[in-house]
Amino acid sequence: MQPNHFDLIPAFYLAIPFFFLLIFINWLGYKFKNYHTKRLAVKEHVGIGPTEGSLLGLTALLLSFTFGMSATKFETRRQQIVSEANDIGTTVLRCDMYPDSVRNLLRADLKNYLETRIDYYAVGDDEELIKKSLEKADSISTIIWHTTAQLSKDLNNRVASEQMIPSVNSIIDIITTREAARRASVPKMILVVLCLLILVSAFLSGYGSKSLERNKVLVFAFAFITTLALYLVVDLDKPRQGFVNLNSTEELLVNLRGLFAETK
Description:
Largest sheet: none
Structural class: mainly alpha
Helix content: over 70%
Distance between the termini: 37 Å
Mean pLDDT: 87
Number of helices: 9
Low-confidence stretches: none
Order of helices and strands: HHHHHHHHH
Radius of gyration: 27 Å
Strand content: under 5%
Shape: rod-shaped
């Protein structure tokens, strides 16, 4: 997967210029209204209330739809981290069903595997480091699977294998599940259309002003609230950076290191 430079930019640094852009676009709409009024020699500007209201309603609808999509994806990623922590923890505990020689071998591999899964999030949005982490996790999980499969051929390990094999399958499957969820961001086309609607709404808001002077309080309030909502949409879609992230949930995986305290 080729890195997307847009995804590497923190949402906060995108929100600041967008806020001032909204104010500028609103000012352009207001100036164009004055120019249009003077050119037509109209004493009173009628405004475009119905059109402006309809466009603002459409913008709000798309914004709420996009926010819901982004929040859902964020929650899905959070739940997957919780599931992976549970799966790894269960697998480590089930190692105790084997003789000590086998148990220690599996726990050593699982300890190394856990570190690769912690690194998977810790490397941030660096695609090269993410790829290396996934390759390492895949390599170690293959070793764990081969060991488990080989042990299942021994009838003395039948009960342990019946419990262990599903657990190992789970920790292998979650690798693909989390990676797919990481890549499943809000479609960029939706964000582009949403930004265009917001900018057009800002222009029409300035153009539809009936007073001779702009209400700066309303202009700044509109720009701030709209930018804040758009910022939250983008920030939720970048859970490895920004103020809304998955750091606290990722601690569940880090805390699993305590299961290997005796092997240090």
